[in-house]
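Quick one: co-fold with uridine-diphosphate-N-acetylglucosamine.
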Amino acid sequence: MEILIIKGGKKLEGEITISGAKNAALPLMAATILWSGKHKLSNIPDVRDIRTMIRLLTTLGAAVTEGKNSYHIDTTNLCKEEAPYNLVKTMRASVLTLGPLLSRLGKAKVSLPGGCAIGARPIDLHIQGLEKMGAAITLSQGYVIAETDGLRGADISFDIPTVTGTENIMMAAVTARGKTRIENAAREPEVKDLAEALISMGANISGAGESMIEIEGTDELTPLSYSIIPDRIETGTFCAIAGVTNSNVLLKGCKPEHLESVIEKLREAGIDITVESSSLRVKGPSKLHSTNIKTMPYPWFPTDMQAQFMALMCVADGTSVIREKIFENRYMHVAELRRMGANIETEGNTATVRGVNTLNAAPVMATDLRASASLIVAAMAAEGETIIDRIYHLDRGYEKIDEKLVSLGGDVKRVSI
Ligand code: UD1
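Sure, here it is.
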Protein backbone atom coordinates (compact mmCIF):
# COMPACT_ATOMS: atom_id res chain seq x y z
CA MET A 1 0.00 0.00 0.00
CA GLU A 2 1.17 3.53 -0.71
CA ILE A 3 0.82 6.75 1.23
CA LEU A 4 1.59 10.38 0.47
CA ILE A 5 3.66 12.48 2.80
CA ILE A 6 3.13 16.19 2.20
CA LYS A 7 5.04 18.95 3.93
CA GLY A 8 2.75 21.96 3.74
CA GLY A 9 3.37 25.65 3.39
CA LYS A 10 5.46 25.59 0.22
CA LYS A 11 4.70 28.14 -2.49
CA LEU A 12 4.45 26.54 -5.92
CA GLU A 13 5.80 27.97 -9.13
CA GLY A 14 6.03 26.80 -12.72
CA GLU A 15 3.71 25.07 -15.15
CA ILE A 16 2.04 21.71 -15.62
CA THR A 17 -0.02 20.16 -18.38
CA ILE A 18 -3.52 18.99 -17.54
CA SER A 19 -4.24 15.33 -18.36
CA GLY A 20 -7.12 13.91 -20.38
CA ALA A 21 -10.47 13.66 -18.61
CA LYS A 22 -11.10 10.28 -16.98
CA ASN A 23 -14.87 10.84 -17.10
CA ALA A 24 -14.72 11.55 -20.83
CA ALA A 25 -12.35 8.65 -21.58
CA LEU A 26 -14.44 5.98 -19.83
CA PRO A 27 -17.61 6.39 -21.93
CA LEU A 28 -15.51 6.61 -25.10
CA MET A 29 -13.81 3.35 -24.23
CA ALA A 30 -17.23 1.78 -23.70
CA ALA A 31 -18.34 3.21 -27.06
CA THR A 32 -15.75 1.06 -28.85
CA ILE A 33 -18.01 -1.92 -28.05
CA LEU A 34 -20.63 -0.49 -30.41
CA TRP A 35 -18.83 -1.29 -33.63
CA SER A 36 -16.53 -4.11 -34.70
CA GLY A 37 -13.07 -2.90 -35.70
CA LYS A 38 -9.88 -1.20 -34.60
CA HIS A 39 -10.46 1.94 -32.57
CA LYS A 40 -7.86 4.46 -31.46
CA LEU A 41 -8.18 6.73 -28.43
CA SER A 42 -5.58 9.27 -27.36
CA ASN A 43 -4.99 11.71 -24.49
CA ILE A 44 -6.14 9.00 -22.08
CA PRO A 45 -4.99 9.63 -18.50
CA ASP A 46 -2.89 6.94 -16.86
CA VAL A 47 -5.19 6.33 -13.88
CA ARG A 48 -6.58 3.24 -12.22
CA ASP A 49 -10.19 3.57 -13.51
CA ILE A 50 -8.87 3.49 -17.08
CA ARG A 51 -6.96 0.27 -16.34
CA THR A 52 -10.13 -1.21 -14.85
CA MET A 53 -12.04 -0.34 -18.04
CA ILE A 54 -9.27 -1.95 -20.13
CA ARG A 55 -9.58 -5.13 -18.05
CA LEU A 56 -13.31 -5.04 -18.55
CA LEU A 57 -13.05 -4.61 -22.34
CA THR A 58 -10.51 -7.45 -22.46
CA THR A 59 -12.85 -9.66 -20.43
CA LEU A 60 -15.55 -8.96 -23.04
CA GLY A 61 -13.20 -10.18 -25.80
CA ALA A 62 -11.56 -6.96 -27.05
CA ALA A 63 -7.83 -6.89 -27.82
CA VAL A 64 -6.13 -3.83 -26.34
CA THR A 65 -2.70 -2.42 -27.15
CA GLU A 66 -1.31 0.38 -25.02
CA GLY A 67 0.73 3.35 -26.26
CA LYS A 68 1.74 6.57 -24.50
CA ASN A 69 -1.54 7.89 -23.12
CA SER A 70 -3.28 6.12 -25.98
CA TYR A 71 -4.91 2.80 -26.68
CA HIS A 72 -5.74 0.73 -29.74
CA ILE A 73 -8.88 -1.21 -28.95
CA ASP A 74 -9.84 -3.96 -31.40
CA THR A 75 -13.42 -5.03 -30.76
CA THR A 76 -13.67 -7.39 -33.76
CA ASN A 77 -13.87 -10.50 -31.58
CA LEU A 78 -15.89 -8.98 -28.76
CA CYS A 79 -18.35 -11.75 -27.86
CA LYS A 80 -18.97 -11.85 -24.10
CA GLU A 81 -21.75 -9.91 -22.47
CA GLU A 82 -20.80 -10.06 -18.79
CA ALA A 83 -19.29 -7.19 -16.78
CA PRO A 84 -18.36 -9.13 -13.63
CA TYR A 85 -18.75 -7.97 -10.04
CA ASN A 86 -15.02 -7.95 -9.28
CA LEU A 87 -14.51 -5.16 -11.85
CA VAL A 88 -17.77 -3.24 -11.42
CA LYS A 89 -17.35 -3.04 -7.63
CA THR A 90 -14.14 -1.03 -8.03
CA MET A 91 -15.56 1.28 -10.67
CA ARG A 92 -19.18 2.30 -10.98
CA ALA A 93 -18.61 3.59 -14.53
CA SER A 94 -18.49 -0.07 -15.68
CA VAL A 95 -22.25 0.38 -16.02
CA LEU A 96 -21.43 2.34 -19.20
CA THR A 97 -21.02 -1.00 -21.00
CA LEU A 98 -24.74 -1.80 -20.58
CA GLY A 99 -26.04 0.29 -23.50
CA PRO A 100 -23.23 -0.58 -25.96
CA LEU A 101 -23.41 -4.33 -25.17
CA LEU A 102 -27.16 -4.37 -25.77
CA SER A 103 -26.64 -2.56 -29.05
CA ARG A 104 -23.83 -4.82 -30.29
CA LEU A 105 -24.76 -8.26 -28.89
CA GLY A 106 -28.46 -7.86 -28.07
CA LYS A 107 -27.65 -8.94 -24.51
CA ALA A 108 -25.77 -7.69 -21.46
CA LYS A 109 -25.14 -8.93 -17.96
CA VAL A 110 -23.68 -6.15 -15.85
CA SER A 111 -23.14 -6.37 -12.12
CA LEU A 112 -25.06 -3.75 -10.14
CA PRO A 113 -22.65 -1.12 -8.82
CA GLY A 114 -24.12 -1.51 -5.33
CA GLY A 115 -23.58 0.91 -2.46
CA CYS A 116 -20.95 3.55 -2.90
CA ALA A 117 -19.08 5.77 -0.49
CA ILE A 118 -20.79 8.92 -1.78
CA GLY A 119 -24.37 7.73 -1.59
CA ALA A 120 -26.78 5.14 -2.92
CA ARG A 121 -26.28 6.10 -6.60
CA PRO A 122 -28.98 3.95 -8.23
CA ILE A 123 -29.12 3.13 -11.96
CA ASP A 124 -32.91 3.00 -12.22
CA LEU A 125 -32.96 5.75 -14.86
CA HIS A 126 -30.53 3.82 -17.10
CA ILE A 127 -32.75 0.73 -16.79
CA GLN A 128 -36.04 2.54 -17.42
CA GLY A 129 -34.60 4.20 -20.52
CA LEU A 130 -33.28 0.95 -22.00
CA GLU A 131 -36.63 -0.76 -21.26
CA LYS A 132 -38.38 1.97 -23.23
CA MET A 133 -36.04 1.18 -26.09
CA GLY A 134 -37.20 -2.44 -26.15
CA ALA A 135 -34.83 -4.20 -23.74
CA ALA A 136 -36.22 -6.82 -21.37
CA ILE A 137 -34.41 -6.31 -18.08
CA THR A 138 -34.33 -8.41 -14.94
CA LEU A 139 -32.30 -8.06 -11.78
CA SER A 140 -30.90 -11.33 -10.52
CA GLN A 141 -28.21 -12.15 -7.97
CA GLY A 142 -26.77 -8.65 -8.07
CA TYR A 143 -26.70 -8.45 -11.87
CA VAL A 144 -28.70 -6.44 -14.39
CA ILE A 145 -29.58 -8.92 -17.12
CA ALA A 146 -30.79 -7.28 -20.32
CA GLU A 147 -31.87 -8.75 -23.64
CA THR A 148 -33.36 -7.40 -26.82
CA ASP A 149 -34.15 -8.60 -30.30
CA GLY A 150 -33.33 -5.10 -31.53
CA LEU A 151 -33.37 -1.73 -29.80
CA ARG A 152 -35.76 0.91 -31.11
CA GLY A 153 -35.86 4.66 -30.68
CA ALA A 154 -37.94 6.05 -27.82
CA ASP A 155 -38.83 9.26 -26.02
CA ILE A 156 -36.99 9.21 -22.71
CA SER A 157 -37.40 11.85 -20.04
CA PHE A 158 -35.07 11.75 -17.05
CA ASP A 159 -36.38 12.89 -13.64
CA ILE A 160 -32.79 13.88 -12.81
CA PRO A 161 -30.13 14.73 -15.41
CA THR A 162 -27.87 11.70 -14.99
CA VAL A 163 -24.44 11.85 -16.66
CA THR A 164 -23.69 8.15 -17.22
CA GLY A 165 -27.42 7.51 -17.76
CA THR A 166 -27.48 10.02 -20.63
CA GLU A 167 -24.29 8.46 -22.02
CA ASN A 168 -25.66 4.92 -21.80
CA ILE A 169 -28.90 5.81 -23.59
CA MET A 170 -27.08 7.89 -26.21
CA MET A 171 -24.77 4.97 -27.03
CA ALA A 172 -27.66 2.48 -27.14
CA ALA A 173 -29.61 4.81 -29.44
CA VAL A 174 -26.87 5.20 -32.04
CA THR A 175 -27.74 1.94 -33.80
CA ALA A 176 -31.35 1.61 -32.60
CA ARG A 177 -34.19 1.65 -35.16
CA GLY A 178 -35.66 5.15 -35.45
CA LYS A 179 -35.37 8.28 -33.37
CA THR A 180 -34.54 8.59 -29.66
CA ARG A 181 -35.17 11.79 -27.74
CA ILE A 182 -33.55 12.30 -24.34
CA GLU A 183 -35.32 15.00 -22.37
CA ASN A 184 -33.63 16.56 -19.31
CA ALA A 185 -30.34 15.12 -20.54
CA ALA A 186 -27.12 15.83 -18.64
CA ARG A 187 -25.24 18.76 -20.24
CA GLU A 188 -21.74 17.99 -18.93
CA PRO A 189 -18.80 18.52 -21.35
CA GLU A 190 -18.09 14.78 -21.10
CA VAL A 191 -21.56 14.03 -22.56
CA LYS A 192 -20.91 16.48 -25.39
CA ASP A 193 -17.48 14.96 -26.03
CA LEU A 194 -19.00 11.49 -26.27
CA ALA A 195 -21.60 12.79 -28.73
CA GLU A 196 -18.87 14.37 -30.87
CA ALA A 197 -16.91 11.13 -30.86
CA LEU A 198 -20.00 9.13 -31.82
CA ILE A 199 -20.76 11.62 -34.60
CA SER A 200 -17.21 11.10 -35.90
CA MET A 201 -18.08 7.36 -36.09
CA GLY A 202 -21.12 8.18 -38.24
CA ALA A 203 -23.84 8.59 -35.61
CA ASN A 204 -26.66 11.10 -36.11
CA ILE A 205 -26.85 13.12 -32.90
CA SER A 206 -28.01 16.66 -32.30
CA GLY A 207 -28.42 18.74 -29.16
CA ALA A 208 -25.62 17.26 -27.02
CA GLY A 209 -24.62 19.84 -24.43
CA GLU A 210 -28.27 20.94 -24.24
CA SER A 211 -31.15 19.43 -22.26
CA MET A 212 -32.75 17.72 -25.26
CA ILE A 213 -30.66 15.29 -27.29
CA GLU A 214 -31.96 13.62 -30.44
CA ILE A 215 -30.41 10.54 -31.97
CA GLU A 216 -31.49 9.04 -35.27
CA GLY A 217 -30.38 5.40 -35.44
CA THR A 218 -28.04 4.21 -38.17
CA ASP A 219 -26.77 0.77 -39.15
CA GLU A 220 -23.43 1.95 -40.49
CA LEU A 221 -20.61 3.20 -38.28
CA THR A 222 -16.83 3.34 -38.60
CA PRO A 223 -14.27 2.70 -35.84
CA LEU A 224 -13.39 5.54 -33.53
CA SER A 225 -10.25 7.66 -33.75
CA TYR A 226 -10.48 10.38 -31.15
CA SER A 227 -8.54 12.48 -28.66
CA ILE A 228 -10.09 13.03 -25.23
CA ILE A 229 -10.80 16.50 -23.77
CA PRO A 230 -8.71 17.78 -20.83
CA ASP A 231 -9.89 17.06 -17.30
CA ARG A 232 -11.84 20.02 -15.90
CA ILE A 233 -11.81 18.58 -12.38
CA GLU A 234 -8.04 18.10 -12.36
CA THR A 235 -7.79 21.70 -13.62
CA GLY A 236 -10.04 22.96 -10.82
CA THR A 237 -8.13 20.91 -8.24
CA PHE A 238 -4.81 22.50 -9.24
CA CYS A 239 -6.45 25.96 -9.13
CA ALA A 240 -7.48 25.20 -5.54
CA ILE A 241 -3.99 23.98 -4.64
CA ALA A 242 -2.37 27.10 -6.15
CA GLY A 243 -4.97 29.28 -4.42
CA VAL A 244 -4.47 27.81 -0.97
CA THR A 245 -0.65 28.00 -1.14
CA ASN A 246 -0.47 31.62 -2.37
CA SER A 247 1.30 30.28 -5.46
CA ASN A 248 1.70 31.36 -9.06
CA VAL A 249 1.28 28.53 -11.57
CA LEU A 250 0.37 28.04 -15.20
CA LEU A 251 -2.02 25.21 -16.07
CA LYS A 252 -1.54 24.33 -19.72
CA GLY A 253 -3.63 22.25 -22.09
CA CYS A 254 -6.97 22.85 -20.37
CA LYS A 255 -10.36 24.05 -21.56
CA PRO A 256 -11.27 27.05 -19.38
CA GLU A 257 -14.76 27.18 -20.92
CA HIS A 258 -15.54 23.87 -19.19
CA LEU A 259 -15.09 25.33 -15.73
CA GLU A 260 -16.66 28.76 -15.84
CA SER A 261 -18.71 28.25 -12.67
CA VAL A 262 -15.62 27.00 -10.82
CA ILE A 263 -13.47 29.91 -12.01
CA GLU A 264 -16.17 32.35 -10.91
CA LYS A 265 -16.20 30.89 -7.39
CA LEU A 266 -12.39 30.71 -7.18
CA ARG A 267 -12.25 34.39 -8.12
CA GLU A 268 -14.85 35.21 -5.45
CA ALA A 269 -12.50 33.48 -3.02
CA GLY A 270 -9.79 35.96 -4.01
CA ILE A 271 -7.80 33.78 -6.42
CA ASP A 272 -6.47 35.69 -9.41
CA ILE A 273 -7.14 33.68 -12.58
CA THR A 274 -6.17 34.80 -16.06
CA VAL A 275 -7.85 32.84 -18.80
CA GLU A 276 -6.12 32.19 -22.10
CA SER A 277 -7.44 29.99 -24.87
CA SER A 278 -6.01 26.74 -23.50
CA SER A 279 -4.33 27.71 -20.26
CA LEU A 280 -5.00 29.29 -16.90
CA ARG A 281 -2.57 31.47 -14.94
CA VAL A 282 -3.49 31.05 -11.28
CA LYS A 283 -2.21 33.28 -8.47
CA GLY A 284 -3.25 32.64 -4.90
CA PRO A 285 -3.97 35.51 -2.49
CA SER A 286 -2.26 35.98 0.88
CA LYS A 287 -5.69 35.40 2.48
CA LEU A 288 -8.69 33.65 0.90
CA HIS A 289 -12.22 35.07 1.23
CA SER A 290 -15.15 32.95 2.26
CA THR A 291 -17.83 32.31 -0.33
CA ASN A 292 -20.83 30.00 -0.57
CA ILE A 293 -21.31 27.21 -3.10
CA LYS A 294 -24.15 24.93 -4.11
CA THR A 295 -23.42 21.91 -6.30
CA MET A 296 -25.76 21.42 -9.25
CA PRO A 297 -25.67 19.71 -12.65
CA TYR A 298 -23.55 21.39 -15.36
CA PRO A 299 -23.19 24.28 -16.12
CA TRP A 300 -23.46 25.00 -12.37
CA PHE A 301 -20.83 24.22 -9.75
CA PRO A 302 -19.77 20.53 -10.03
CA THR A 303 -20.11 18.12 -7.13
CA ASP A 304 -16.70 16.74 -8.13
CA MET A 305 -15.12 20.06 -6.99
CA GLN A 306 -17.07 20.40 -3.73
CA ALA A 307 -14.54 18.68 -1.46
CA GLN A 308 -11.56 20.61 -2.85
CA PHE A 309 -13.44 23.91 -2.51
CA MET A 310 -14.36 23.07 1.06
CA ALA A 311 -10.66 22.58 1.85
CA LEU A 312 -10.02 26.11 0.51
CA MET A 313 -12.79 27.56 2.65
CA CYS A 314 -11.25 25.97 5.77
CA VAL A 315 -8.56 28.70 5.74
CA ALA A 316 -10.63 31.58 4.30
CA ASP A 317 -11.65 34.62 6.33
CA GLY A 318 -15.24 34.34 7.59
CA THR A 319 -17.90 31.66 7.17
CA SER A 320 -18.95 29.85 4.05
CA VAL A 321 -21.96 27.65 3.48
CA ILE A 322 -21.68 24.67 1.16
CA ARG A 323 -24.74 22.85 -0.14
CA GLU A 324 -24.30 19.44 -1.78
CA LYS A 325 -27.32 18.94 -4.02
CA ILE A 326 -26.20 15.95 -6.13
CA PHE A 327 -25.14 13.21 -3.72
CA GLU A 328 -26.56 12.60 -0.27
CA ASN A 329 -23.41 11.41 1.46
CA ARG A 330 -20.59 13.41 0.01
CA TYR A 331 -19.08 14.84 3.18
CA MET A 332 -16.73 11.98 4.02
CA HIS A 333 -13.79 14.41 3.88
CA VAL A 334 -15.25 16.57 6.66
CA ALA A 335 -14.09 14.31 9.48
CA GLU A 336 -10.57 14.17 8.01
CA LEU A 337 -10.39 17.96 7.49
CA ARG A 338 -11.50 18.40 11.10
CA ARG A 339 -8.56 16.24 12.17
CA MET A 340 -6.38 18.93 10.60
CA GLY A 341 -8.03 21.66 12.66
CA ALA A 342 -10.84 22.71 10.30
CA ASN A 343 -14.00 24.13 11.83
CA ILE A 344 -16.85 22.51 9.87
CA GLU A 345 -20.38 21.68 10.97
CA THR A 346 -22.73 19.63 8.82
CA GLU A 347 -26.46 19.31 8.91
CA GLY A 348 -27.94 17.12 6.21
CA ASN A 349 -26.53 18.30 2.90
CA THR A 350 -25.32 21.65 4.27
CA ALA A 351 -21.85 22.27 5.61
CA THR A 352 -20.90 25.44 7.42
CA VAL A 353 -17.20 26.17 7.29
CA ARG A 354 -15.72 28.75 9.64
CA GLY A 355 -12.28 29.68 8.39
CA VAL A 356 -9.29 29.16 10.70
CA ASN A 357 -5.88 30.81 10.43
CA THR A 358 -3.94 27.63 9.76
CA LEU A 359 -4.53 23.92 9.34
CA ASN A 360 -2.22 21.53 11.14
CA ALA A 361 -0.74 18.40 9.65
CA ALA A 362 -2.23 15.10 10.80
CA PRO A 363 -2.44 11.51 9.61
CA VAL A 364 -5.59 11.38 7.46
CA MET A 365 -7.34 8.83 5.31
CA ALA A 366 -8.66 9.20 1.78
CA THR A 367 -12.25 7.95 1.60
CA ASP A 368 -13.17 8.54 -2.03
CA LEU A 369 -11.65 10.07 -5.13
CA ARG A 370 -12.51 13.75 -4.67
CA ALA A 371 -12.28 13.57 -0.87
CA SER A 372 -8.67 12.52 -1.28
CA ALA A 373 -8.04 15.53 -3.54
CA SER A 374 -9.42 17.81 -0.81
CA LEU A 375 -6.92 16.32 1.64
CA ILE A 376 -4.13 17.24 -0.76
CA VAL A 377 -5.41 20.84 -0.94
CA ALA A 378 -5.51 20.97 2.87
CA ALA A 379 -2.14 19.29 3.32
CA MET A 380 -0.42 21.68 0.91
CA ALA A 381 -1.57 24.57 3.13
CA ALA A 382 -1.09 22.90 6.53
CA GLU A 383 1.75 23.45 8.97
CA GLY A 384 3.84 20.30 9.25
CA GLU A 385 3.84 16.91 7.54
CA THR A 386 0.52 15.36 6.60
CA ILE A 387 0.35 11.65 5.89
CA ILE A 388 -2.47 10.64 3.54
CA ASP A 389 -3.39 6.98 3.69
CA ARG A 390 -5.45 4.94 1.17
CA ILE A 391 -4.34 6.98 -1.80
CA TYR A 392 -5.57 4.26 -4.15
CA HIS A 393 -8.73 6.40 -4.21
CA LEU A 394 -6.67 9.30 -5.53
CA ASP A 395 -4.96 7.10 -8.11
CA ARG A 396 -8.36 6.17 -9.56
CA GLY A 397 -8.67 9.61 -11.12
CA TYR A 398 -5.56 11.81 -10.88
CA GLU A 399 -2.61 11.13 -13.17
CA LYS A 400 0.72 11.43 -11.32
CA ILE A 401 -0.59 14.20 -9.08
CA ASP A 402 2.39 13.79 -6.72
CA GLU A 403 4.88 14.13 -9.59
CA LYS A 404 3.07 17.21 -10.91
CA LEU A 405 3.18 18.82 -7.46
CA VAL A 406 6.88 18.03 -7.09
CA SER A 407 7.56 19.58 -10.50
CA LEU A 408 5.96 22.79 -9.18
CA GLY A 409 8.20 22.76 -6.12
CA GLY A 410 5.89 20.93 -3.70
CA ASP A 411 7.33 18.76 -0.94
CA VAL A 412 5.39 15.57 -1.70
CA LYS A 413 6.60 11.99 -1.31
CA ARG A 414 4.89 8.74 -2.30
CA VAL A 415 5.99 5.97 0.01
CA SER A 416 5.21 2.23 -0.10
CA ILE A 417 4.41 0.75 3.28
C1 UD1 B 1 -21.01 11.08 -13.02
C2 UD1 B 1 -19.52 11.21 -12.84
C3 UD1 B 1 -19.20 11.59 -11.39
C4 UD1 B 1 -19.97 12.84 -10.99
C5 UD1 B 1 -21.45 12.68 -11.29
C6 UD1 B 1 -22.24 13.96 -11.06
C7 UD1 B 1 -18.64 9.66 -14.45
C8 UD1 B 1 -17.95 8.37 -14.70
N1 UD1 B 1 -18.92 9.94 -13.18
O1 UD1 B 1 -21.45 10.03 -12.17
O2 UD1 B 1 -17.80 11.82 -11.29
O3 UD1 B 1 -19.81 13.04 -9.59
O4 UD1 B 1 -21.64 12.31 -12.67
O5 UD1 B 1 -21.73 14.99 -11.83
O6 UD1 B 1 -18.89 10.42 -15.36
N2 UD1 B 1 -29.42 9.05 -10.20
C9 UD1 B 1 -30.59 8.34 -9.98
N3 UD1 B 1 -30.87 7.29 -10.81
C10 UD1 B 1 -30.06 6.93 -11.84
C11 UD1 B 1 -28.87 7.66 -12.06
C12 UD1 B 1 -28.59 8.73 -11.22
O7 UD1 B 1 -31.34 8.63 -9.06
O8 UD1 B 1 -30.37 5.97 -12.56
C13 UD1 B 1 -29.09 10.19 -9.32
C14 UD1 B 1 -27.80 10.00 -8.53
O9 UD1 B 1 -28.02 9.28 -7.32
C15 UD1 B 1 -27.37 11.43 -8.28
C16 UD1 B 1 -27.80 12.15 -9.55
O10 UD1 B 1 -28.77 11.31 -10.16
O11 UD1 B 1 -28.08 11.97 -7.20
C17 UD1 B 1 -26.70 12.41 -10.56
O12 UD1 B 1 -25.96 11.21 -10.73
P1 UD1 B 1 -25.27 10.85 -12.11
O13 UD1 B 1 -25.18 12.06 -12.97
O14 UD1 B 1 -25.93 9.65 -12.67
O15 UD1 B 1 -23.80 10.43 -11.64
P2 UD1 B 1 -22.89 9.39 -12.38
O16 UD1 B 1 -23.23 9.38 -13.82
O17 UD1 B 1 -22.86 8.13 -11.64
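If it helps, The domain at 2-19+230-416 is CATH 3.65.10.10 (UDP-n-acetylglucosamine1-carboxyvinyl-transferase; Chain).
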